[in-house]
Specification:
homodimer, about 270 residues, alpha/beta, 6-stranded mixed sheet, 3-stranded antiparallel sheet, 7 helices, globular, binds guanosine-5'-diphosphate, cell division (chains A, B)
């Protein structure tokens, strides 16, 4: 099993932390630990970085490739920040197209992007121009999964409003995000469970690799504040569990099938038609 | 008494809320309530908006002018977002220069900017290119007071680290922020109190006009989350009290004197020298 996950969003939205939390492993290093004392706003373009890791889920080995994009949204002029990222998605399609055309096809290494986690800043207002521009450029090439970053910034009420605004913006701009196919002959329980997951989109998540103690004495992954302790795996506190179910349990195969049977075929058709 | 306060920062950093909280009055309307259903990311340039309000502090009437800058940091290309703001600061200096040169000077209406509250996004990393660019453009024209917005996003540890990073970035770029003059003949108590305020810069603040109930039953201004209640006026929770003391109590006169005797004179000298 392999999963190629593209992770995009402005710096400081907790992306590295969330990826590590999802797979419960220190896969990505937070920027903080790499910073030097001098001018740290020294990104002058978007870079593509790839980190590989092997993890185990329910006794099954998962080969993970995390593609990150430092520099996205960092500059005073971000007009072209989408380009290197789209190029990367395309080059991975091209790589597969080229491998497919060879004689020995049985061992193709699938490097295509299976899902994009796009991190939205928890402003409470509507999507930014940059968010919309980027999602419009990429939504027809990858399975787009929007998440609200650092959702502990928002009260329960604000999360409901914000999700509504985001979904309205997404609808207004004809942006397609990942929706699993609904099979009519699926069992009721599966349909209900899947609906529960998708109803939470965009997922309002928090991430943490720190162990903290709750008021009732449990040791959990979470964040500790003077006014309280927030728990990653508590569905009353955020949608982390739902995101994890989508990515790793319920829809992993579907994300890959949609990439292979629909998004890739679409790219291939357009490319060969030129 | 009058105070002209310039408020700058990206959308959704809680600026309107914080201004209302500082003066305990609904002076600014949050963007949320103005948003329409269609494309809400419709700012294509930085606008200058002015809101006047009369408030009472300790029985003294304060004539407040809040200058806000919707559109700042909103676009995909923010390279020139500082220009309309600098123009506004300059035009207010020009306005005063022109009034000063008339015969009847006794009733000059002082519209000069007395302080700039610059809101920093609580990323936990270092300052963004846009933050640095803007502060470098404006720090020699206004009293710059940097604040960390929505500081409830950061744990106590993260606040300490973040403040250090910000101060290092500010130092590295030779950015001057407001420092009150230390008079050697001031009473010890005053010096100690002032130092306590200034030691907290950049202030990590939260804002709220909502009344919430604390676990021990008090009704306070704050934000209510499933994991706890954060209080605006609790110094264990954030630096709001210190910011308020700086702006309204301890240094209000000094902010105005520094504007009048130093920043304005500097502008005047450079302008007349041309
Ligand atoms: N409030 C809050 N802070 C977080 C969360 N996740 C990470 N952080 C903190 O945000 C800062 C930046 O996190 P990082 O993962 O490096 O963000 P990245 O730049 O997007 O990769 C660090 O100080 C983290 O501890 C979260 O869910 N909520
Ligand atoms: N977590 C947190 N949210 C806040 C704070 N202040 C305001 N908000 C929320 O952030 C959102 C945007 O606030 P607003 O004042 O309109 O921000 P502005 O766009 O900068 O003027 C609203 O949903 C506020 O309730 C704060 O200190 N902490």
């Amino acid at each position: 099993f392999n999963l190629n996950l593209l992770v995009v969003g402005e710096s400081g939205l907790g992306k590295s932390t969330l990826i590590n939390t999802l797979f419960n492993k220190e896969i990505l290093v937070s920027n903080d630990d790499l910073t030097n004392d001098e001018d740290t706003s020294s990104e002058d373009q978007v870079k593509i970085e790839t980190t590989s890791s092997e993890i185990e889920e329910d006794g099954v080995k998962l080969k993970l490739e995390i593609i990150t994009t430092p520099g996205f949204g960092e500059l005073t002029n971000n007009t072209d920040s989408w380009k290197p990222i789209i190029d990367e998605v395309n080059s991975r399609f091209d790589q597969y197209l080229e491998a497919e055309s060879r004689v020995n096809r049985s061992t193709i290494d699938d490097k295509r992007i299976h899902a994009l986690l796009y991190f939205i800043e928890p402003t409470g207002h509507s999507l930014k121009a940059l968010d919309i521009q980027f999602m419009k450029q990429i939504h027809e090439k990858v399975n787009l999964i929007p998440v609200i970053a650092k959702s502990d910034t928002l009260s329960d009420e604000e999360i409901v409003d914000f999700k509504t605004k985001i979904l309205n913006d997404i609808k207004f701009h004809d942006i397609k995000f990942f929706k699993p196919f609904e099979y009519e002959n699926d069992e009721e329980e599966i349909l209900v469970n899947n609906k529960k997951i998708m109803d939470k989109l965009p997922f309002a998540v928090i991430g943490s690799m720190k162990e903290v103690k709750t008021p009732d004495g449990r040791l959990v992954r979470g964040r500790s504040y003077p006014w309280g302790t927030i728990e990653v795996d508590n569905e009353e506190h955020n949608d982390f569990i739902k995101l994890r179910q989508l990515l790793i349990r319920n829809f992993l195969e579907e994300l890959k099938e949609n990439t292979s049977n629909y998004l890739y075929e679409k790219y291939r058709t357009e490319k060969l038609a030129k």
